[in-house]
């Protein structure tokens, strides 16, 4: 106990008071909180300050900060560190008391327990570590995990550069990068993780260090898509990209036009996507289909998108526009609903195959319409284009553990929104069946790919399996090297952990 208190570097009088409290506390709160959690939260309050720890009665606002109601849970206490040193103290406390914990950057994952925990643990909320800085030549931006991507693009706008990050402004910085980070311009510049120069991290024992190409290079490699298995990242140093001005348009189509839209998408993947400045955002809904054409430079009706120009939209909510990354991000922000609901994702991957796209869509639509009629659940069917250049950029930038296919392909995902916990199983059955159909039909056609993008994966999926056996073995070795007592594997409440597979 005294060794822990000493490591927290408290004033002598404060340290003695804490030791007294920890060794002699017997309060009525012990009826509802175990002594173990009570002591851990008391130690955190002394180490971080009373304004940085919510204990006993956690505010509903902090509980509800997670985007999905599937993740709303009230922890024993919430720790709100404002510095890297305070994160280190928090982890020392977690390790000493051997208590469950979760880490929250933006809280956008809909997977229960990934960035939330109930009264069986503590939540480390990184919202106050929200620093932003850019170096003198504007080549590197440093971001705190508490920032949202909308904050980042707003701040970068005046500097005339951008960064590979999140497409939706409400998403937090931390989880997106650690899961890989797919962006509008990833075809040209790679994933967010592959644009990292350095990670400032806190290891399980509270050690603060850096991970980059020269220092802790194995940890640097692991953090580029390896998820929350190794450390808490308190600063992301990312290379900027020379993109500010972009061209975009958004069109709407009817459900009857979906087969033609999917054909156009595959045609663009096979030819138009060779122009790496072009990308397509395709979201098929139950009532309408949205197509966003995006080009990473000023343009006038880019020829790369020719297959889509032959389609007649029912509406054009965003006409052809020469705008900015910030302007595009602002538009995407308006499509994000803040209405409280339960959410889920799910993912799969295949080669380019228009017939497969249409066959799986037909299966999904039938199932999704039926479940919507019974529960009111809304679902989407989304194809994300992944040019082979994404893997090539990753290789050129030092590699990552993802094991990405070095071919042009697509990542399918779905967003499901619904009300009522009682509907969870029946609603989630649709995307579960759809991923099974992707595999069944894809394998029969030789188009299925075992890769699964971590940031699209649902709670019962195993994205790390798709990284390949050698990469998984390397990740395990790195985990044991930097976390020898396996705190992140045994005490962390959720996430795609190596220990869970």
Helix share of residues?
25-40%
Determine the N-to-C terminus distance: 34 Å
- List how many beta strands DSSP finds: 18
What are the segments in which pLDDT stays under 50 over at least 5 consecutive residues? Answer: 26-33
Mean pLDDT: 95
Radius of gyration equals 23 Å
Structural class: alpha+beta
Strand % is 15-25%
Number of helices: 17
How would a textbook summarize the main sheet?
A: 9 strands, antiparallel
Shape field: globular
Question: How would you characterize this protein structure?
Answer:
There is one protein chain. By secondary structure, this protein is α+β, with helices and mostly antiparallel strands. It is built from 17 helices and 18 strands. The strands form 3 sheets. Strands 10, 11, 12, 13, 14, 15, 16, 17 and 18 form a 9-stranded antiparallel beta sheet that branches. α3 runs antiparallel to α5 and α10 (258-270) packs antiparallel against α13 (354-375). It is globular. The model is unreliable at 26-33 (pLDDT under 50).
Q: Which helices and strands, and how do they pair?
A:
Elements: H1 2-7, H2 12-24, H3 35-48, E1 53-55, H4 60-63, E2 77-79, H5 84-97, E3 100-104, E4 121-125, E5 132-134, E6 140-143, H6 149-157, H7 173-178, H8 186-189, E7 196-202, E8 208-212, H9 217-223, E9 232-239, E10 245-254, H10 258-270, E11 278-284, E12 288-295, H11 306-309, E13 315-324, H12 325-333, E14 342-351, H13 354-375, E15 378-379, E16 381-386, H14 389-396, E17 409-418, H15 424-445, E18 448-449, H16 469-482, H17 487-490
Parallel strand pairs: 2-4, 3-4
Antiparallel strand pairs: 1-2, 5-6, 6-9, 7-8, 7-9, 10-12, 10-13, 11-12, 11-16, 14-17, 14-18, 15-17, 16-17
Helix pairs in contact: 2-3, 3-5, 6-12, 10-13, 13-15
């Amino acid at each position: 106990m005294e060794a822990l208190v000493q490591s927290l570097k408290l004033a002598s009088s404060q340290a003695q008071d804490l030791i007294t409290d920890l060794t002699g506390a017997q309060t009525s709160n012990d009826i509802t909180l175990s002594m173990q959690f009570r002591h851990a939260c008391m130690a955190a309050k002394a180490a971080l300050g009373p304004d940085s720890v919510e204990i006993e009665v956690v505010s509903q606002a902090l509980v509800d900060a997670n985007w999905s109601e599937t993740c709303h849970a009230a922890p024993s206490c919430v720790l709100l560190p404002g510095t890297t040193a305070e994160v280190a103290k928090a982890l020392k406390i977690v390790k000493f008391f051997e208590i469950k914990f979760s880490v929250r950057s933006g809280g956008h994952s809909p997977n229960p327990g990934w960035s939330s925990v109930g009264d069986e643990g503590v939540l480390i909320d990184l919202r106050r570590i929200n620093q932003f800085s850019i170096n003198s030549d504007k080549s590197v931006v440093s971001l705190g995990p508490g920032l949202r991507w909308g904050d980042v693009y707003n701040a970068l706008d005046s500097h005339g550069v951008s960064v590979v990050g999140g497409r939706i402004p409400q998403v937090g910085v931390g989880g997106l990068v650690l899961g890989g980070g797919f962006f509008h311009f990833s075809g040209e510049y790679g994933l967010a993780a592959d644009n990292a120069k350095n990670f400032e991290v806190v290891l399980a024992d509270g050690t603060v260090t850096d991970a980059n190409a020269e220092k802790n290079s194995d940890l640097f490699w692991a953090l580029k898509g390896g998820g929350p298995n190794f450390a808490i990242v308190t600063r992301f140093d990312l290379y900027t990209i020379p993109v500010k001005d972009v061209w975009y348009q958004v069109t709407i189509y009817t459900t009857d036009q979906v087969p033609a839209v999917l054909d156009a998408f595959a045609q663009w993947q096979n030819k138009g996507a060779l122009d790496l400045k072009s990308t397509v955002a395709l979201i098929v809904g139950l009532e309408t289909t949205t197509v966003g054409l995006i080009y990473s430079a000023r343009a006038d009706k880019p020829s790369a998108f020719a297959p889509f120009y032959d389609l007649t939209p029912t509406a054009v909510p965003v006409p052809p526009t020469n705008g900015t990354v910030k302007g595009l991000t602002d538009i995407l922000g308006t499509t994000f609903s803040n209405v409280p609901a339960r959410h889920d994702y799910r993912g799969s991957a295949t080669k380019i195959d228009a017939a497969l796209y249409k066959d799986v869509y037909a299966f999904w639509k039938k199932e999704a319409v039926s479940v919507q009629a019974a529960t009111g659940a809304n679902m989407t069917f989304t194809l994300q284009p992944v040019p082979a250049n994404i893997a090539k950029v990753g290789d050129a930038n030092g590699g990552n553990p993802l094991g990405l296919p070095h071919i042009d392909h697509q990542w399918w995902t779905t967003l499901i929104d619904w009300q009522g916990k009682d509907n969870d199983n029946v609603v989630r059955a649709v995307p579960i069946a759809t991923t099974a159909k992707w595999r069944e039909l894809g394998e029969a056609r030789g188009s299925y790919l075992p890769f699964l993008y971590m940031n699209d994966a649902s709670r019962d999926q195993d994205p790390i399996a798709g990284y390949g056996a050698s990469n998984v073995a390397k990740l395990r070795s790195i985990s044991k090297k930097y976390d020898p007592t396996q705190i992140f594997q045994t005490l962390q409440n959720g996430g795609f952990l190596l220990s869970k597979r």
